[in-house]
Amino acid sequence: MVEIDKSKYNVLFKVDTPKDIRNLSLTELKTLCSEIREYMVDVISQIGGHFGGGLGTVELTVALHKVFNTPVDQIVWDTGHQAYPHKIVTGRRDLLGTIRQLNGISGFLKRSESEYDAFGAGHASTSISAALGIAAANDVNKTNKKVVAVIGDGAMTGGMAYEAMNNSGMLKKDLIVVLNDNQMSIAPNVWQISKYFTEMISHPEYNRFKGAIWDLTGKLDDFGDRIRKVAARVEHGIKAIVTPGMLFEALGFRYFGPINGHNLPQLIRIFEQVKDLSGPILVHVLSEKGKGYKPAEGHVQRLHASTPFDKITGQAIKSAGTPQSYTAIFGKALVEIAKSNPKVVGITAAMPDGTGLDFLQKEIPDRFYDVGIAEEHAVTFAAGLATQGVIPVVAIYSTFLQRAFDQIIHDVALQKLHVVFVLDRAGLVGADGPTHHGTFDLSYLRMIPGMVIMSPKDEAELRDMLFTAIEYKKGPIALRYPRGSALGVKINSEFNKIPIGQSELIKGGEDIAILAIGNMVEYAKKSAELLLEKGINAEVINMRFAKPLDHDRLEDIAKRFDKIVTVEENNLIGGFGSGILEYFADNNYKNSIYRIGIPDKFIDHGTQSELHKIIGIDPNSIAEKIKEIYNNKFSTKEVVA
């Protein structure tokens, strides 16, 4: 239960919707900004969540809702990390304490959650494309909604953003893009010139004067054309000198900025001046991630996301004795291997810490590549490296690697290139919800010819699988593991190579066979213990590989068991269990196969353990389902929640 002292908030609890913001004075708006920051610290320190980005967008959020008539006017936020203040002022202030929790509000934008969430997304670089679509719909629907896309400088490293900007420049729809830049530093002298120039060219009187001059010169034939050309060169030349907006101008946008993202009056003024201009507009806003909270301002990662933390120090509150995360174990193992193999390099798409590649970045920086939020480029970049005998280890979250599906097929697998894919956050990730659950990778990778797919049962096997993948030379190979702490098993100092496609017997039995993969092996073991108490002796196999399957093991299982259960933390359609079914069908076996996994629907957010119980893949649920299967109480061979 989140505890909040409402008495210290004089303005915030008077704001239930953006309409209330529009009735506030400038003094009250400044107080509101301060109180939003304090409220975020109060709440997120108790429950955890994405933090630094939102602290940097408080004034921007208030200015946008002050100037634009939301929700009629549409604001499209990229990703959602920066949109906590938006949630607070759009009717979800009192629900912030439930964010990212089971049955609580989402940590991202979600259309079904609020009419103020114009477009939902958990993957970066989508906002401009979506906003352009909304702007184009104005013509189709004969409406006149203002459309604003808010995109961070990190998301601007993604190619999709530039594809959208290029198309915006061609279509010339009325669209405002706000570049929320918390990285770029502008020198004071440049800042002053740019501030003056921006206010000049955005002022309505200037634009009316410019339009009148353009109309007049259009009536002066050749002489007028020469004046126009000179005027255009002068204007463009000034912009090139005093602003960093040449690229955006070349893409067809009128560029305004940079603007101080924490100067509320200036933000309000610039939005009022540009909102009625025609065509694509880009407003460049400079903000500070973690603004207003000293521990976040001084933190290297700016408290981008955090578990519950101490309000005074900003230090995360951690449980004692927790085993290392799978992410850290992978990162350290890669460094060990890279030190003995000079051909090994690591590639991340803007997430060195999230994927464990920060260890390689620190230890061997010349063999570490961060390509930005550009997963497609990361994979083809790796393919290029592989053609020259380099061994690229591409570490990307399972859900983000979906974005590079074509590159995996066309640029890597088709050419049989040795690229190692390491998929962190495979399975249900918990609080980040459906945009981040890695529940499809076994399905989308298994269909690719030549792809090898492994998943470890624990951290010791993770290390050996990484070593195996790097030593493998026949083509692409993927390794997937879950989010969170490992099991705490003993780790050998040496690496062992695992024969490709070889499974492992965990526990013998004679009543029913359980074929499990990845972290579900531990769940299968616990389920077998519960079943034994009920008089059912189940055999447990760690299959290790979703592709290729261990045919020798499957033939043995087929001979000894009538009923076989598969367990995976992946969507049932096309996943590991589907592979087992296909093998038994192709070989005309008559055994009954039952699949336990993630059903054919998007799973909402909550803790991993809560979600496992809800969809029935926790040890108790698995044991109960297997007991019913063994006692012939299931009429179908597919077990879904």
List keywords for this structure.
single chain, 641 residues, alpha/beta, seven-stranded mixed β-sheet, 20 strands, globular
- Average pLDDT taken over every residue: 89
- Find the structural class using helix and strand composition: alpha/beta
Gyration radius, in Å? 28 Å
Instruction: Please tally the helical runs, counting DSSP H or I stretches of 4 or more residues.
Output: 26
Strand fraction equals 15-25%
Distance between the termini: 30 Å
Oligomer: single chain
Number of DSSP strand runs: 20
Q: Write down the overall geometry.
A: globular
Strand order of the largest sheet: 9-8-10-11-13-12-17
Low-confidence stretches: 184-194
Largest sheet: 7 strands, mixed
Query: What fraction, in percent, of the residue positions are helical?
Result: 40-55%
Protein described:
- This protein has 641 residues and is of the alpha/beta class.
- The chain is built from 26 helices and 20 strands.
- The strands form four sheets. A seven-stranded mixed beta sheet has the order 9-8-10-11-13-12-17, with helices on both faces. It has a six-stranded mixed beta sheet with strand order 14-16-15-18-19-20, sandwiched between helices. A five-stranded parallel beta sheet has the order 2-3-4-6-5, sandwiched between helices.
- β15, α22 (520-533) and β16 form a beta-alpha-beta unit.
- The radius of gyration is 28 Å and the shape is globular.
- The two termini are 30 Å apart.
